[in-house]
Amino acid sequence: MPVQRLNSTDIYYEIHGEGPAVVFIPGVAVSHGMWAPQVAAFQNSHQVITYDVRGTGRSGKMAWSTRIEDHARDLASLLRFLKIKEAAVCGVSFGGVIAQRFALNYPRLCRALILVDTFSELKPRDREEASLWLMTWLASPMFLLPKPWLTSILMDFYEPWPYAQQVLRAEVPKIRGLDAVKTRWMIRKVDFTRTLAQIQCPCLGIVGGESELAIRMMKRLIKAIPDASLQVVPDSFDPTSLCQREEFNCLLADFFHRIGWQAGMDVEPLYPNVGFTHKIERRRNPEGVRTYEWKRERKWVR
């Protein structure tokens, strides 16, 4: 797969399948490889595009002066190079920040938006959010740790989610520590909430249910986007695309179906002898945000 010179940097990308275009943007420090379950799920029904953002994988370096706008321009340049007129764009965590900026700056290229375990601002509104802000900066040097130490920290944290452990273990050797620190420095200025009303494309928010603070920040984001909805996935954490990949893929498939960006799935079940039925409960919470919560029942197939 190629590396292309775009917007004064090198961008590594991969394309799988044919059909309506879907772009997956990874989180901070990790490469396109974190989207392997989604490539497997959607490559038979969509043109799936994954890429390494600046400062990750095989793409160009981050500079201290790099801005979110540069990342959004990188993606726009990639789509134009590939002659893709519009795409559904899905970003997790830091990738969700890029996706928001992309949708604001390049609305004609953005057919739909999926924002996962992300945020639209980092201005603390209370002590809990201030603690998160402080922890974000204090944790930045973690990316400079020796890789075995960083692997051990991540494996301990993601112990409840073995598949996420597996993927992140493979990602750690690819992490470029200083570029990751520069990325953390860049996102300190993120403040999109007041401008998100300009987004007019269909938008789905997905957040893991293990963090009340993450849910609160996602509710704030989704409430600011017209007609957007939020799905809370139980027993999940950032990134939900790995911690609960089956539920995540089902949510995407359902969303694509509802907006006419048709998708199907071709993934091998985790438990061949177990079937899952899903029920979605739709409600409006006190903040006025439409939320959807998955109810999953396990049923043995005989």
Description:
The chain is an alpha/beta fold and 302 residues long. It contains 10 helices and 10 strands. It has a 10-stranded mixed β-sheet, sandwiched between helices. Helix 2 packs across helix 3 (94-105). Mean pLDDT is 87; it is low at 263-284 and 290-302. One of its GO terms (molecular function) is hydrolase activity. Keywords: Hydrolase. InterPro entries: AB_hydrolase, AB_hydrolase_1, AB_hydrolase_fold.
Labels describing this entry:
AB_hydrolase, hydrolase, AB_hydrolase_1, AB_hydrolase_fold, alpha/beta, single chain, 36% helix, ten-stranded mixed beta sheet
What's this model, at a glance?
The chain has 302 residues and is of the alpha/beta class.
